[in-house]
Design goal:
Helix content is 43%, strand content 19%. The chain has a six-stranded mixed sheet with strand order 1-9-8-3-6-5. The radius of gyration is 56 Å and the shape is flat. It contains nine helices and nine strands.
């Protein structure tokens, strides 16, 4: 009998394990009227997240707030989430939806909160769209059975009323689009292109803007941060490196000039020797050293002048110049051809006329009278 009971217990335990494995895990939360329910939508190893929340029964809640429980910066407003990080390392965390159930909500009412989102990796590549849902159901407050009345106690002295505490202010869903735009503009600037004082002021306003994007704020705070950052960007002073670049270019010309480098080396060596000769008592030696040193100084000065003065190179270019004719001149080619054609045509016409005349003359000479001769006598007419 005992063995049979053990078998039944083992079978029951196996059935319970199978049911536990097969039953789907429900993502749901319960709350009473007037309670605030927190829904956690978690993510891991991302560099950015972009998504939107939708509600199947938004009227179930009297208010909905969003909390960024991660190291990502960005904004969460109007049920939309845009979070990002400028660091190389990925970030894990969650977006918390704090929904307060209406005090007049009925037990059994529910609302499904769905988060449709996509994430980005370190290269800015976006993932496929994903969804995560959680359902909030209203439960009835537990009823308590009436207890037996207790014996009355002696009245105590009334205590002084305490001052009412100010309820904590909730951060409204402010529009942060302009602040996000100004932050992106500032992050695209290069520090080395602007003066240190103007850059430090802009960087201070940029950090304030990032802080509000991360932690939220009222609409007035968001607008003020966006305006201050925009004004700081406009007030940035550009660095002018043109003079330094010109000086560097001139210095490179000197260092790249081998002859000048040798002369400078000789000048240094000669200068050292001349300083030593200041204690010499040989006048001839001193005068020769002074003359040599002065000559080197003049040569170096001339070379430096060549480097500073741009060399002008004369280029000779041959240009064809059209000379106008001295006499009557016509630049129309056909006008030169027409007289030739006229005389050619005249010669051809004369030749044709001559040929025609010769042909007619020959034809007349060769023409014969083929009429037959008749033997005629006038006396025959009288008979």
């Amino acid at each position: 009998m005992k063995r049979k009971m053990n078998r039944m217990a083992a079978l029951l335990l196996a059935v319970l394990m199978v049911v536990t494995l097969v039953a789907p895990a429900a993502s749901a939360a319960e709350g009473k009227q007037g309670e605030t329910v927190s829904l956690y939508f978690s993510f891991s190893d991302v560099h950015g997240i972009d998504g939107e929340f939708t509600f199947s029964n938004r009227d179930l809640f009297s208010s909905v707030n969003y909390v960024n429980s991660s190291e990502l910066g960005g904004s969460m407003a109007n049920d939309k989430v845009f979070l990002y990080t400028g660091q190389e390392a990925s970030v894990s965390g969650s977006v918390v939806v704090q929904a307060t159930i209406r005090s007049d909500a009925k037990a059994g009412e529910s609302c499904t909160v769905t988060f449709t989102y996509e994430t980005s990796d370190e290269n800015g590549n976006m993932s496929e769209w994903m969804t995560s849902s959680q359902t909030v159901t209203v439960v009835a407050a537990p009823t308590t059975e009436p207890t037996q009345p207790s014996q009355p106690t002696n009245p105590t002295n009334p205590t002084s009323p305490t001052s009412p505490t100010t309820p904590p202010e909730t951060t409204p869903n402010a529009d942060m689009s302009e602040l996000e735009r100004q932050v992106r503009i500032a992050e695209g600037l290069k520090e080395e292109e602007y003066t240190k004082d103007s850059w430090d002021k802009m960087l201070e306003d940029l950090n304030k803007g990032r802080e509000i994007l991360e932690n939220g704020g009222t609409q007035q705070e968001v607008d003020t941060a966006a305006k201050n950052l925009a004004d700081s960007i406009k007030a940035l002073v550009k660095m002018d490196y043109s003079k330094l670049e010109k000086a560097i270019e001139d210095a490179k010309k000197i260092t790249d000039n081998d002859d000048l480098g040798k002369k400078i080396t000789n000048l240094v060596n000669e200068l050292t020797g001349c300083i030593d000769k200041l204690k010499s008592r040989d006048q001839k030696e001193v005068d020769e050293a002074a003359e040599k040193l002065a000559k080197l100084v003049e040569e170096i000065a001339a070379e430096l002048e060549k480097v500073r003065t741009p060399q002008v190179v004369e280029v000779e270019k041959k240009v064809e110049v059209e000379v106008p004719p001295k006499g009557e001149y016509c630049n129309i080619p056909m006008h030169k051809v027409w007289p030739v054609l006229f005389f050619v045509s005249l010669a051809v016409n004369v030749a044709l006329i001559v040929l025609i005349i010769v042909y007619i003359s020959k034809k007349k000479k060769n023409q014969k009278d083929n009429t037959p001769l008749v033997d005629y006598d006038i006396a025959d007419d009288e008979n």
